[in-house]
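Open question from group meeting: does this chain pack into something compact, or does most of it stay loose? Before anyone orders reagents, we agreed to write out a predicted structure and look at it together. Recording both the input and the output here so the notebook holds the full record.
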Amino acid sequence: MILKSIPSLLTVGNLFLGVIAILMVFNEKPQMAAMMVLIAMLLDGVDGRVARALNAQSEFGKELDSLSDVISFGVAPAFIMYVVAFQDLSPALAWTVTAIFPICGALRLARFNVITSSAGYFIGLPIPAAGGVLATLALFKDDIPVGVLLGSTILLSCLMVSTIRYPNFKKVGIPRSAVWLVPIVVVVSVALGLLFESQLSKILFVPLLLYALYGLKKNVDRRLPKLRKRRKLKEEEEAAKSEKPA
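Structure tokens returned:
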């Protein structure tokens, strides 16, 4: 019974860290808040794998995971960005952009829960990745214009509800014999996060951003041949029409 509860405990830990991130950013600790979001990403990444390793998957765990993700990777990153960068803007604009992000994240999760895809990809940018990018992007507020931060928040929101395909690494499982290593990895990650909150959060921004941009690149690469083919067919049709006798 205790073993079967481990995945849910990891998910609750994810939710706990999301709430702590919100509290920290409102207590003027944005770097630590961003690190809490990143550690929550780690817990979110292992809870499903642990559940599969222990054969403890359930609808309860699935719903709990989605609800936790909305807080940890939707609400918390949006608040981090708002507190760090948007408070000097028009309230209507700042509040709207801040609200759009978790709303799109919730829509993304709802779609994920009702659409089963086994093709090895996600449809739309996963909310943990989007939240990780937004939370760490806020730390560069002094180096990036507020307009770019606003646009980035809207772009990440749109990517979550888009049909762009992103690689799915969830099939990389954890052997049952290695489940005992998960608490050690989590504890070490928390320790490193607390010791190097500023450096690690900014370093981890890079791979998260590359993942978000990767989907855009693959989408463009997939669509370009189709656009060229359509253009070629159109040119051939026009050429055929022009060759017809009047």
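Observations to bring back to the group:
Helices lie at 2-25, 30-53, 59-86, 91-114, 127-137, 146-160, 181-195, 197-243.
The first helix runs from residue 2 to 25.
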